[in-house]
Amino acid sequence: MVLFERKYFKGGLQMGANFGKKFEQDFAAEAKKAKEGKIFVHRLKDTDMSYSQRITTYYTPKNICDYFLFFEGKLYALELKTTTYKSISFDRKEDDNKMIRLHQINDLTNLLQYNNIISGFVFNFKDEEKNTEKVYFMSIQDFNNFVYNTDKSSINATDIVLNGGIPIEATCKRKWFSYNVDKMIDDIDKYVLSKEQEIGSDFYV
Predict the structure, then answer these.
(1) What is the 3-state secondary structure (H, E, C) of 130-146?
(2) How is residue 44 annotated by DSSP?
(3) pTM reported for the whole predicted model
(4) What single-letter DSSP state applies at residue 10?
(5) Rounded-to-integer distance, Cα 72 and Cα 49, Å
(6) What is the mean predicted confidence (pLDDT) over 96-125?
(7) 38, 55, 58, 104 - which has most CB atoms within 10 Å?
(8) CA–CA dist 32, 30 (Å, integer)
């Protein structure tokens, strides 16, 4: 039985499908329970690449993100990324083929033109030996600012925290993890409010 598979990208090796999918499923389950079950959670379907290897990526549909969460008039567009490594690589050019693809960055950025949409990444740094996970939300604005101000092509947990990232509580429940999505929503809203007060305008427009 295959417990997990590993996927190779330029500049690093990323968690395989099973660990990443497990994180997505557990995160979505917690989101559906948060805020007394009043969060609408929608998973965008993954592209089916098994149809034919002859189909080029030019014709392959690309999702904006992994999940939409809707709560009290706000839409949260979230792209989830999981790794066992110390950092997560990202594209600077279309053909870099890193863990975070350029189209994912662009799609999350393009959502900023709409009111009441908060878009960004949920990063999960998993330590298999210690059985721990460090999880963060990072808005696409803060991510883009980081990319603009660095020569690096990857981001680690320290970079995320120092550049506006918001920790998400992750608790090990024997064979699975729970994530405090309830608090995540509150923390994101507080952060947005503080940024709006700081810059004197709508942070997410």
Answers:
(1) CCEEEEEEEEHHHHHHH
(2) P
(3) 0.84
(4) T
(5) 36
(6) 96
(7) 104
(8) 5
Q: What phi-psi label fits residue 72: left (phi over 0), alpha (psi between -120 and 50 degrees) or beta?
A: left
Residue type (1 letter), 27:
F
pLDDT in tens, 149-165: 999 999 999 999 999 99
Q: What is the mean pLDDT of residues 44-48?
A: 71
Helix 181-199 and helix 17-37: axis angle, to 10°?
80
Provide the pLDDT for residue 202. 66
DSSP 45-112: PPP-TTS-TTS-GGGS---S-SEEEEETTEEEEEEEEEESSSEEEB-SSTT---SB-HHHHHHHHHGG
- The whole-number pLDDT of residue 59 equals 46
Distances (CA, A) of 56 to 8, 127, 130, 145: 19, 35, 40, 32
Exposed/middle/buried for residue 29 (C-beta within 10 Å: 0-12, 13-18, 19+): middle
pLDDT of residue 60: 52
Length of the chain: 205
